[in-house]
Design goal:
The structure is a homodimer. Chain A has about 240 residues and is an alpha/beta fold. Chain A has a five-stranded parallel beta sheet, sandwiched between helices. Chain A has a four-stranded antiparallel beta sheet with strand order 6-7-8-9, covered by helices on one side. The first copy, chain A, has a three-stranded antiparallel beta sheet with strand order 10-12-11. In chain A, helix 6 crosses helix 8. The first copy, chain A, is elongated. At the A-B interface, loops of A face helix 4 and helix 5 of B. Chain A binds a DNA duplex (30 and 30 nucleotides) through helix 6 and helix 8.
Chain lengths: ~240, ~240
DNA sequence: TCATTCTGTAACACATTCGTAACACAACTA
DNA sequence: TAGTTGTGTTACGAATGTGTTACAGAATGA
């Protein structure tokens, strides 16, 4: 029913070589990757970018991986994010203590294929965050159950396609979609439609959103479009 | 102000190991748990214990989960109980067929955290009140015990179908229903009736409600209909 | 700067969905 | 039985949604 979703993964490790290795493997598997070198920036990235999953190294200089996990779980806004611990062989206690906070662990060394398989398994058994939970950015509110979008309390008159488009954007903010990805996910896989049609629907959506909110739909030149909620410093890449 | 409610959840599954696992997770989250190993006892438990929610396995030996859902919906006394289907991965059709009758589904395997989150979400949006309590929106009053609906004191002359339709809407406001969901819940599970019939009954209902109240029944283009009470700034969270 | 590519915008024709009324038959009542 | 009410189906017009095209304007790179 649902087309495959491109997931955003945060990698937290103090060694940049490992980060890069992980990133390459994950990007080849179709994940979007974000980095963090220490717990502090990790927390910031999580808050602003809302990744679908975080890979956290057990051994880190200042704050340990376990401690970072605990902090993430403590904040209700981030408590539901699946966490995967990265441990060296022999750190058996990590597996025991770690699994009480994290959702899975991976032992170094590991093959990229194994890594990807484990992540997918974790994601599969984790809720696609709030598939019917309401989302709100700057007064723009999506109510998936009621199939309704309101701007500062006033309900917007959206066509079905416009609704699905905006719904996709709002549930996957800060992520750039190509036109064909949008056609795939909003129109449904097997249609053959001109790419340019997306542009027209974006135009209509922006018009309905009006001055205030239309700025959240950014065009990514040469690629497609992206939904940027405010107060998101979006410092990656 | 409502006292903290301890919700009673009924688990229906033929495998006792899964029942126990579920029960443990739910009890830790503060739910009261009741078991049933088959559809027959499930129906008895529901009738006598009136749980706030039921988790039902899709695949069961004698009566299937779907069939059980339909029976629960068919009995007016139990029709409004939120139902969550438990499906194995790959049973895609279960999700599609199931969601016409159930309120949500959970795919095995799942994490306890996911389970609890989903249940809370379902409870949040389905049972804000007791089933027999009267509901009133803008002078439109539903009296479930007396099976009567009055508008500003004058009682409305509704046909049985119209009554059940409006009752469903008023007990589940702000929620969009597809035509087949409405057929399932208002007409009863196994009838084969044209979708368009729903439109006609909506029309009749609107006519009876008149200028003032008919606006509460909104059509959701491409989907179905929704009951929108006025003054609902929806400030939850 | 110019040339080229990409995106915004409006207008149009076609497709789809929905509202409405009319009708036939079923269910119920007296 | 005859009359009344309830219900499902159908048909058609109106309203709305959608894809395409054309052109203007903006961004990009040499």
């Amino acid at each position: 029913m649902e087309p495959p979703v491109l997931r955003r993964v945060l990698i937290v490790d103090d060694e940049s070589s490992i980060r890069d290795m992980l990133a390459m493997a994950l990007e080849m598997a179709g994940f979007e990757v974000v980095h963090a070198g220490d717990a502090q920036t990790a927390l910031q990235e999580i808050a602003s970018l809302q990744p679908d999953l975080a890979i956290i190294d057990w051994m880190m200089p200042k704050t340990s991986g376990l401690e970072l996990c605990r902090r993430i779980r403590k904040n209700p806004d981030t408590a539901e994010i699946p966490l995967v611990l990265l441990t060296a062989r022999g750190e058996e206690d990590a597996k025991i203590t770690g699994l009480e906070v994290a959702d899975d662990y991976i032992t170094k060394p590991f093959s990229p294929r194994e890594l990807v398989a484990r992540l997918k398994a974790v994601l599969r058994r984790t809720t696609p965050r709030g598939i019917d939970e309401p989302v709100e950015y700057d007064g723009l509110r999506l109510d998936p159950v009621g199939q309704k979008i309101t701007a500062r309390g006033r309900s917007l008159l959206l066509s079905p396609t416009e609704f699905r488009l905006l719904q996709l954007f709002m549930t996957q903010p800060n992520r750039a979609f190509t036109r064909s990805q949008l056609l795939d996910r909003v129109w449904g896989g097997d249609v053959y439609i001109d790419d340019r049609t997306v542009d027209v629907h974006i135009r209509r959506l922006r018009k309905i959103l009006g001055e205030n909110h239309s700025e959240m739909i950014q065009t990514v030149r040469g690629t497609g479009y992206r939904f940027d909620p405010p107060n998101t410093a979006s410092t990656n890449r």
